Amino acid sequence: MPRAVISGYYGFGNCGDDAILRGIISGLRQQDADLEVVVLSANPAETRNRLGVAAVNRYNPVAVARAIAGADLLISGGGSLLQDITSTRSLLYYLSVIQMALSMGKRVMLYANGIGPITRATNRQLCRRVLCRVHLITVRDDSSREELESLGVRGPLIEVTADPVFALDELGTQEPPETEVTVGAAFRPWGPPDRLQWVFSVLASTLTRRGWRIRLIPMHWKEDHPLAARLRTAAPGGVEVWTGPLAEPADLRAAFSGLSVMVGMRLHALMFAVKMGIPVVGLAYDPKVTAFLRSVGQEQLAESLDSVDPQRLCEAVSGAVRSGPELRARVREHAAQLAARARRNAELAVALLRGEMVGDPR
Question: Which end of the chain is more exposed for a tag (fewer CB within 10 A), N or C?
């Protein structure tokens, strides 16, 4: 029976990465119901119980080596695994897992990755040496493909697809709110705390004066909930913090229910919103946010956190609300296109697993 090992940022309580994993597993099983899956997780028990797959501790090198040795394919993905903005340590971890699989003669696929930024010269050289040897790379946006080209990655097939969350049909499409305007907000700790507090305070004061409500949604509970609680404390009435779970697609549907627009720093808050047909306004703390907004035709709504003018942000949110049905229709069109491209990831992965990839030298 064929077996795939999946490596990524799993088991950390980040609902975006957990949804990526669910999307990968769902896509693979739609292509091959007999495929066995083993996940490298920071919380193997939770991953096994929630997703019904085998899982091993990602920090146990012996367990990781055994899992890869017994597999036919290593999948590295998705998300922004290969970058050195947060740390070089995480980059080296994911490259080491890839290198381990290659040294064992296993097929390796980068699955809907967001690549970069990779800034340090030694990191760029290492990425080039390792990635030139993998069998297949799919990336979630054109910017990631361009980063691979700038690294000098040659050899594997590189295809632009879409993030696996767009293949999650369980998320469904949210119906637009009938009367009350509720603005979703997914912020993360980044940059000077006072500046983020100021930006949110202006946003909340402006929007709540219009009778609109704001729902703060902590996407990564450990990091985002304390921030959301602080923002709520300093905000006027009409601001709530979502305290329900976000582990399952039904949880996400509930959290995003009734939103008129989503204001997000967290990339997957924006992706979930688009998947559900909800317009978005992104605070681009990272190039991946800008890249995603560009892919759904909403680059004009991107705001850099470093230079954001809160009043312009309020105007962008108001414009998205006013556009109503027209903007929602465009968002749904983009979501449908991204869903088709997301399913392509699993098709390619199973073709590679079966040795059907054209030009596969291994």
Answer: N
